């Protein structure tokens, strides 16, 4: 009886598997560290009696570790420029416009459910203290927030989704493994309640993230993802 051989992975598939493992292990290491010392670190970051810069840098380090560290390691290891993941001029307007459309149900849900408390892009727990520290500190600190909580958080989704999509390609026009996995990742870290409003929150969040990543796939432009996390997700 002829023995059936297992499908051999290509060199590219092996590289993609390695890339995904690097990202997963790096991110899990940061989460493990946060689980062990997260309480004292958060207390430190919220302590207004401490200078604002150490608190900002600690919180930025944690955020970057969770969303950005893994993909940065891979890009350094593989010598891949960030620009190759869709950071380009072509189709930027289409990517941003399409992403906004995908986020409209989520925005409407936030507003109509009474959760909207004001539009505050680049606002984190230390932002009020940044503004009190003077104009130069406020500007420099806001740039740090924009890079870490805006650029890297959105770009992180784009890079991971592309790696997964290339590793597990599909022919469907409306389904993509990379978009689905990254959407589920985002939902896992998004508080959800299992009541009527919670289900609406879940549905609109899914549409926003999955739509954003499908727009990225078809425009081959990642600026829509970055825009979403700079001016929508972390702003409302």
Protein traits:
single chain; 236 residues; mainly alpha
What does this structure look like?
This protein is an all-alpha fold and 236 residues long. It contains nine helices and no strands. The protein has helices at residues 11-46, 52-66, 69-78, 92-112, 127-132, 135-167, 177-188, 196-219, 223-233. Helix 4 packs parallel to helix 9 (223-233). The relative contact order is 0.15.
* Global shape: globular
Query: Measured on Cα atoms, how large is the radius of gyration?
Result: 19 Å
Distance between the termini: 63 Å
Mean pLDDT: 93
Main beta sheet: strand number and arrangement? none
Along the chain, the helix and strand elements come as HHHHHHHHH
- Total helical elements: 9
Measured as a percent range, the helix fraction is over 70%
Low-confidence stretches: 1-5
Summarize the SSE layout with pairings.
Elements: H1 11-46, H2 52-66, H3 69-78, H4 92-112, H5 127-132, H6 135-167, H7 177-188, H8 196-219, H9 223-233
Task: Provide a concise account of the structure shown.
With 236 residues, the chain is mainly alpha-helical.
């Amino acid at each position: 009886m002829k023995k059936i051989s297992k499908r051999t992975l290509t060199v590219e598939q092996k590289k993609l598997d390695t890339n995904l493992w690097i990202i997963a292990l790096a991110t899990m290491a940061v989460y493990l560290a946060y689980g062990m010392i997260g309480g004292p670190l958060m207390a430190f970051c919220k302590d207004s009696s401490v200078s604002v810069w150490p608190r900002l840098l600690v919180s930025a380090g944690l955020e970057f570790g969770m969303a950005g560290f893994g993909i940065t390691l891979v890009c350094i290891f593989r010598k891949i420029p960030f620009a190759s993941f869709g950071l380009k001029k072509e189709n930027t307007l289409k990517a941003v416009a399409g992403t906004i459309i995908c986020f409209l149900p989520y925005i409407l849900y936030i507003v109509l459910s009474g959760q909207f408390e004001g539009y505050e892009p680049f606002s984190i727990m230390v932002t009020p203290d940044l503004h009190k520290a003077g104009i130069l500190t406020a500007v420099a600190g806001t740039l740090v927030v924009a890079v870490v909580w805006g650029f890297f958080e959105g770009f992180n989704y784009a890079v991971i989704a592309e790696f997964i999509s290339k590793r597990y390609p599909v022919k469907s026009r409306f389904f993509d493994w990379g978009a689905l996995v990254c959407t589920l990742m985002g939902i896992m870290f998004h508080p959800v309640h299992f009541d009527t409003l919670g289900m609406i929150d879940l549905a609109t969040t899914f549409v926003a993230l999955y739509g954003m990543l499908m727009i990225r796939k078809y425009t081959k432009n990642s600026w829509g993802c970055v825009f979403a996390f700079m001016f929508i997700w972390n702003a409302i």
